[in-house]
Amino acid sequence: MTTALRELIADPNAAELELIARYGMQPEDERRKRLFGAFAQTGLPHRRLEAWKWTDFKAALKALDRPAAPSAKDPIPHEGALVFKLSPGGYFPPDHVPDGLNVFAKEEAQAMGAAEDVPLGALAAALAGGKARPATLLLEVTSSDLPRLHFEFSGEGEASFARIVIVVRPGVSLTVSESHLGGAGLAASVIEFGLQSGALANRTVYQRGTPEETIASTALVHLDAEAEFTQTTLSFGAKLARLETRVTHQEPTAKATLNAAYLIGKGLHTDITTHVRHGANSCITRQLTKGAVLDGGTGVFQGKFFVPRTAGQYTDADMQHKALLLEDGAVVFAKPELEIYADDVECAHGNTSGALDEDQLFYMRQRGIPEKTARALLTQAFVAEALEEAGALEELLRGEAETWLASA
What we know:
Helix content is 19%, strand content 40%. It is built from 8 helices and 19 strands. It has helices at residues 3-6, 14-24, 30-40, 57-60, 119-127, 358-366, 371-384, 394-407; strands at 81-87, 90-92, 101-106, 136-141, 148-153, 157-168, 173-180, 184-195, 200-207, 214-223, 228-235, 240-249, 255-264, 269-278, 284-293, 298-307, 316-325, 331-340, 346-354. A 10-stranded mixed β-sheet has the order 2-1-5-7-9-11-13-15-17-19, with helices on one face. The chain has a 9-stranded mixed β-sheet with strand order 3-4-6-8-10-12-14-16-18, with helices on one face. Helix 6 (358-366) crosses helix 7 (371-384).
């Protein structure tokens, strides 16, 4: 490794040196250089950065090691879906691509705006590619008659990186699901949605990892006029898991719904972070995040609505986060924020955390329901509201939550 490469990141640890070495092995490319430079400004995000103070990747990731455990099993059905699998060892597209979907596996890196805002997204975009994997997987959607697109991020290795760009043409609707299943010491991916005028997209995200894995999923969403984006996330955490979504309403009357549920056990951590920029008039955002955490687990929620002075009038936005601390020793950090400069908006946010309602527990136990079962039923009912927009996958997500609660 040359001195110039080593000096890209200040005071690098062993994991960052390995990332620099991987970058050095990539073909020279100005756009890739720009992306890695965006990551190198901070290196692995750490607690001294405000947006990462509860999710310290630099402390958690001392080196890039292969976990002992394999990837989790994918619970989302592949039948009836177009499945794209991305792993450290390769890229596996569906055998047949129907009319209405154009797939371009680009070997060269593509530009990404505001890469400095998402350092792990920039890292994923910079190091994606090689070993028959595309640097950028670009999909153009021109028909609403497509089956669900499913992306599986899994496979064993020290590190895994992937970048996907989806463009949905005007008036077209699309259903997307993703499974982030671990298997690598560091798995970083970035997926970008461009919804053109009147387009609709429903995205479901499932994440599960172990105390040996760090997972970073970044989504960047741009909405044109009357476009509508709906997202449902279910996270079970990992050593560190960061699921970050940044939405930009860039033309009037767009709508975004961002719902999430997290269920976190001992030794696991998840971070649900969102940022919504209302950059046009009369846009709507609805956000509901619910979580439940056991002793030794950590849940993080960070949400921000930004409404600039020169745009964003008549914004209608609401953000709610509610968490249950199921046992002593459970930890939840929350930071809901509104940053509003326009003067004619309706924006609200709320945040609560606490234990299960003892009166409800007493009522159920009086009717012969064992305490563990009663706690599981109440917790399941609590998080279920956050899964209601997942469409055909809602029952599957509820089942996964039920299974976790039964074994907790």
